[in-house]
Specification:
By secondary structure, the protein is α/β, with parallel strands linked by helices. It has 20 helices and 32 strands. The protein starts with 9 loop residues before the first helix and ends with a helix. The longest helix is centred in the N-terminal third of the chain and has 17 residues. The strands form 9 sheets. An 8-stranded mixed β-sheet has the order 12-11-8-6-7-16-17-25, sandwiched between helices. A 7-stranded mixed β-sheet has the order 5-4-19-18-20-21-22, with helices on both faces. The structure holds adenosine-5'-monophosphate-propyl ester.
């Protein structure tokens, strides 16, 4: 594959950026020309942020799996597309070539068709990190079914809510998944999620852990049986075929649920053509991928990072993408480094929370490994603190590998602000410069743009980029109010940001009620709703606090009715309730029982005060005169959990 649009110098970056702003349509048309289209577009971009309506490459027809697989087969058929490293290092590694991937994806497409899945149907995928998860995603895309992957850490209730919201009819799952020493019984969780469900027609179960499962006649089928049957249909005389469905550029590709500051998670919808061009372009430019390199993104496919930078971005570029089933600390904290040496990984993309946790385990786990294949290091998911940046740079990259600190969001589809590895300068704890096509701006609370450098404000984006969110599934108004109504004619990110004297951007964290716990986005309202479901809880307020490993921890203030005979037991029970309703990732780290919450006369909780107490910054709580009962603050301060 030729990567003619890979930016190779700072000047080329500046020129590309300028062109992307001045002539966005011809800029993106030129890049899009490098893909496989069944029909070219009628117009490159139509948009307004009012409705909002964003349409890229309108009128074009394509199938993203032909771009991720078929078009590589002639040249790269025997190149590894996916290298799979299992949880247990003693288990066999699987190397999936592009030819093999093609066959498996055709089989999945056939299997889904056999089971009645049609273009536009929603297929929920709840699997561990096995290659079959990638086959499942791509199999859906091949027939135009909309995949909705749910992270394996979400509870039955969360799954039920998502199935319901997406009105899904099909599920692909595993009997269980491995995470270090633990086995997570995924099918059992699905069974719980399906109690009372009337829309699911089929559940396909892939065998991974041999955990006993219940299989309901007529509804549940084994992946292995269905795939074997499909194999005979797609392979004739040694030739594998399953025609890819022709999709409109703006047909939905997938739904991915993400948390916001209010209510239940929303289904972010990405479409076919723009998302494909964006993930491919950003992958090639940020990581500067070269043919033959091995690229390892440690994310879970249950999150957007896995969608864009394990599956669609790398595969559309004909890259070798390493997929890892386990956790960074099992069998020991050298697991990532062992994988890097074993597979001669050249590009490593991980999260600050993983870096901090491995840092805490000490250098002896690092120093056992050579790490001399590494050329580029990446970070994503939350601001990377300077200490972690330096540790990563020195001990992992041996001061030889550029670090790309990539800022972006589920709604963005792909990387928005980042250094281009070795091409544009990097700076600790700065995402640095916007990618071509991204027009960031900082605004004050009234929506006025803050011009110039050495300023900070709320981060917005002024112009559409190909990979942006198109709608929130089933509720376009929610998309408008969440992202396009805060400031006129701009997409609001929810992040605070500063621009330094050089024009480099540094993301400072969320400015709304969204927490970022170990790189996972969690809405405070969502956690409060779960806590409030617990018997005896009258009211609760949840805020974040700085956490050494997780970045942010969850601090819950709870008004509890009646007597607390065993505070610790009640805390555990409440945490269990949160685990059941959302998943263990949303469990509070600290629970403080309080008599009252600091409220204004109109009944609004003053979270600013609660945040300061959780951050142990009680010296200056700011103006508390608007409080209905200022004495509650003293009580809360006195009982604060250290
Ligand atoms: O606050 C920002 C933070 O993560 C949020 C997006 O979360 P999510 O949609 O789950 O996507 C995570 C992976 C793309 C953002 O609003 N964030 C993400 N990357 C960075 C970051 N904050 C600072 N620096 C980053 N590199």
């Amino acid at each position: 594959m030729k990567y003619s649009y890979q930016i190779k110098s700072l000047d080329e970056y500046k020129n590309a950026y300028k062109k992307s702003v001045e002539q966005p349509e011809s800029f993106w048309a030129e890049i899009a020309d490098n893909f496989l289209w069944l029909k070219k577009w009628d117009s490159v971009l139509e948009w307004n942020f009012k409705d909002p309506k964003v349409e890229w490459f309108k009128g074009a027809k394509l199938n993203i799996t032909e771009n991720c697989i078929d078009r590589h087969l002639k040249e790269l058929g025997e190149k590894p597309a996916i290298i799979w490293e299992p949880n247990n290092p003693d288990e066999r590694v699987r190397i999936v070539t592009y030819n093999r991937l093609h066959k498996r994806v055709c089989q999945v497409a056939q299997m889904l068709t056999n089971l009645g899945v049609k273009k536009g149907d929603r297929v929920c995928i709840y699997m561990g990190m096995v290659p079959e998860l990638a086959y499942a995603i791509l199999g859906c895309a091949r027939i135009g079914a909309i995949h909705s992957v749910i992270f394996g850490g979400f509870s039955a209730q969360s799954i039920a809510d998502r199935l319901n919201d997406a009105n899904a009819q099909f599920i692909i799952t595993c009997d269980g998944s491995y995470r270090g020493e633990k086995v997570i019984p995924l099918k059992d969780v699905i069974d719980d999620a399906l109690v009372g469900n009337k829309t699911i027609k089929k559940v396909i179960v892939y065998t991974r852990t041999r955990t006993p499962v219940s299989m309901i006649k007529g509804r549940d089928v084994w992946w292995e049986d269905e795939m074997e049957y499909a194999e005979h249909q797609v392979e004739k005389n040694g030739i594998v075929q399953f025609p890819a469905t022709s999709m409109d550029a703006e047909d939905p590709l997938f739904i991915l649920y993400t948390s916001g500051s209010t209510g239940k998670p929303k289904g972010v919808v990405h479409t076919q053509a723009g998302y494909m061009v964006w993930t491919n372009y950003t992958f090639l430019n940020v990581f500067q991928y070269k043919p033959e390199q091995v690229y390892f993104c440690t994310a879970d496919i249950g999150w957007i990072t896995g969608h864009s930078y394990i599956v669609y971005g790398p595969l559309s570029a004909g890259a070798t993408s390493l997929m890892f089933e386990g956790i960074p600390t099992w069998p020991d904290a050298g697991r990532f480094w062992e994988i890097v040496d074993k597979h001669k990984v050249n590009i490593l993309y991980t999260a600050p929370t993983a870096i901090r946790s491995l840092m805490a385990h000490g250098l002896e786990h690092v120093n056992k490994h050579k790490l001399n294949s590494l050329e580029v290091l990446g970070s994503v998911g939350e601001p990377i603190n300077e200490e972690a940046w330096q540790w990563y740079y020195k001990n992992i990259g041996k001061e030889r590998c550029p670090i790309v600190d990539t800022w972006w969001q589920t709604e963005n589809g792909g990387i928005m602000i980042s250094t281009l590895a070795g091409v544009t300068p990097s700076k600790p704890s700065f995402a640095t410069l916007p990618l071509p096509g991204v027009q960031p701006c900082l605004v004050d609370e009234h929506g006025n743009e803050i011009l110039g450098n050495e300023v900070s404000g709320n981060l917005c984006i002024k112009f559409p980029w190909p990979g942006m969110i198109r709608t929130t599934y089933g509720d376009h108004e929610r998309c408008r109010t969440t992202y396009f109504a805060t400031y006129e004619n701009m997409y609001f990110t929810g992040d605070g940001c500063l621009r330094d004297a050089n024009g480099d951007y540094r993301i400072t964290g969320r400015v709304d009620d969204v927490l970022n716990v170990s790189g996972h986005r969690i809405g405070t309202a969502e956690v409060e709703n779960a806590i409030n479901m617990h018997t005896g809880v009258v009211e609760s307020a949840v805020v974040g606090f700085p956490h050494d490993i997780k970045g942010q921890g969850i601090y819950a203030y709870i008004i509890y009715e009646g007597k607390l005979t065993d505070e610790d037991q009640t805390r555990k029970d409440i945490m269990h309730t949160v685990s059941k309703l959302i998943g263990s990732i949303a469990k509070p780290d600290k629970i403080q029982f309080v008599k009252g919450l600091p409220k204004t006369r109109s009944g609004k909780i003053m979270r600013r005060i609660l945040r300061k107490i959780a951050e142990r910054e009680t010296g200056n709580l700011g103006d508390t005169s608007a409080l209905l009962d200022p004495s509650v603050v003293e009580d809360i301060k006195a009982g604060a959990i250290q």
